Amino acid sequence: MRPLPHDPRTSEWIAASHKPALAEACVRYALAFNTLERAWLAGLLADDVQYGSQQVFDIVHGRTPVCEHLGRKIEALRALPGREPRFELARSPTFGECLAGFERLEAAERNWLARPGLTAVLTVNAAGRVASVMIVTVAPSPAHVQRSGIYPGIGSGTVHEIAQRDTGTGR
User: Fold this and answer.
1) Contact present, 112 and 106 (Cβ < 8 Å)
2) 3-state DSSP assignment of residue 52
3) Least enclosed by CB within 10 Å: which of 24, 56, 73, 130?
4) Where are the alpha helices (DSSP H) in the chain?
């Protein structure tokens, strides 16, 4: 796996975790989507990984199918300018370390970062590889996660500017 970018806030978030392997996996997953670089997924997924979503009945099984599925998602997002995905490091009272997910659906949308639309819940195996990804959109509510303000791969100045400009909290 490629080394994580040096970011003191992200390093502190990982260090504060009772499950640092899970916290690091969350960072890598967020980096893949925040930068739209599927290379962050290389070496991250276990051979028997499972991917599911509350929005879809089918579960994707296995590293290659899951990697292809996530790669198609990243490519589709890259092809749609203005539809910016963002994953923020978070903690859930139910799941522990997780990701709060956001997506700007149109350029004029101002408060797209105000409330998460999903929670990405990962589990890791003993080797620190992602064993499962579950996208939670309904229950428990994604709004109940404790947000960190850390968006891996997005400079903190950029995130601050986005939050001020686009969530309706700015001037």
Assistant:
1) no
2) strand
3) 56
4) 8-15, 20-34, 63-78, 156-166
Report helix, strand or coil for 143. Answer: helix
Taking the C-alpha atoms of residue 142 and residue 95, their distance in angstroms, rounded to an integer, is: 11
Tell whether the torsion through CA atoms of 30, 32, 35 and 39 is positive or negative: positive
Task: Give the residue, 116 or 20, on which the prediction is more confident.
Answer: 20
State pTM to two decimals.
Answer: 0.86
Task: List pLDDT tens digits, range 91-115.
Answer: 999 999 999 998 877 777 778 777 7
Residue type, 21: A
Query: Could you tell me the residue ranges of all domains in the chain?
Result: 8-166
Question: 8-166 adopts what CATH topology?
Answer: Nuclear Transport Factor 2; Chain: A, (3.10.450)
Amino acid type, 22: L
